[in-house]
Each structure stands twice: as structure tokens, then as C-alpha cells.
Amino acid sequence: MDLTVVTYLVYLAVTVPLTVWVARALHRYGEVFLNEVYGGDTNLAHAVNQLLVIGFYLLNLGYVALFMTSHTTINSGQRLLEVLSEKVGAVAIVLGVIHLVNLWAFNAFRRRAVLRAKALPPIEPNRYTEMAPPPAFPTEQTSPLAWGAPNSPAR
């Protein structure tokens, strides 16, 4: 068997499970963030989480497939490992960057939800706010000492 084909098979054997492992971790732990963001609406959180994971798979497996080709001649075990490490390393870096972008997005969603929750009034508005009666001003019949007294005639 040609060493180039062996390189491709080992590359796929390493990068595809790595992609699946990261996607499952994002799916499992990302749903916790999304449940909080969507106020406990687990159906919506699950749906958004599924869409994010599908996008993650498409992006990463597409990158794995595009990056699989090699134009270098692989004629030894040393060269096989060198090419393989370059390719797997590049995929791992891309997976890490996309993972960090997902974490940033989850945190941004959560931060926005927390700010929205803080902006809500503590009670439901009822279009009517009771106002305190205006203070009684003294009249000419009361003395300034009686202003504000409980039994003053101004009240």
C-alpha cells in the first residue's frame, strides 16, 4: 500500500473522532448555557444547540476533507509522521478556534439574556401608578408651628 494512502487513512482516523468528540462536548455543555439564555425553554434551547452542532460538523468536516490532500511525496515513515502531524495539528488548531468562538457566542447569548432579565420591572406594569397626595400648605388661619401637625386644619 502506498504511504500517501496510509497517511490519509491515519489522518481521517484521528481527525474525524476528534471532531466528533469536540462536537459532543459542545452539544452536552452548550445546552446548559442555552437553557439559561432562553429562560428555561428546553425545546428552543435544544433546537438551537442542534443547529449549532450541525454547523460545527459541516464546517470542521469540510475543513478536514479539504485539508486531507497532500502534494508532497511521502516515501518514508518519518515523512509520513511529519505530514500527518502538520495536518492533524492544523485541524486541532481550527477545532480549538471554532470551539472558542462557540464559547464566546454562548457567553454573549447568556450575557444578553441576563441584561434583558435585569431590564424587566420587578412587577408587571398596570398603566396606573398611585401618587401620594400633595403636601398640605399652611393657610392663613394656621400658625407655622401647626404645619404638618396631625390634627392641623390644613389637612
Short synopsis of the structure:
The protein is mainly α. It has one domain. It is built from three helices and no strands.
Overview of the structural elements:
The protein is mainly alpha-helical and about 160 residues long. It has one domain. About 65% of the residues lie in helices and about 0% in strands. The radius of gyration is 33 Å and the shape is rod-shaped.
Helix content class: 55-70%
In total, the number of domains comes to: 1
Order of helices and strands, N to C? HHH
Q: Average pLDDT value?
A: 81
Major sheet, described briefly?
none
- The amount of beta strand, in percent, is under 5%
List the helices and strands and how they pair.
Elements: H1 3-37, H2 42-66, H3 77-119
Helix pairs in contact: 1-2, 1-3, 2-3
Defining traits:
155 residues; 3 helices; mainly alpha; 0% strand
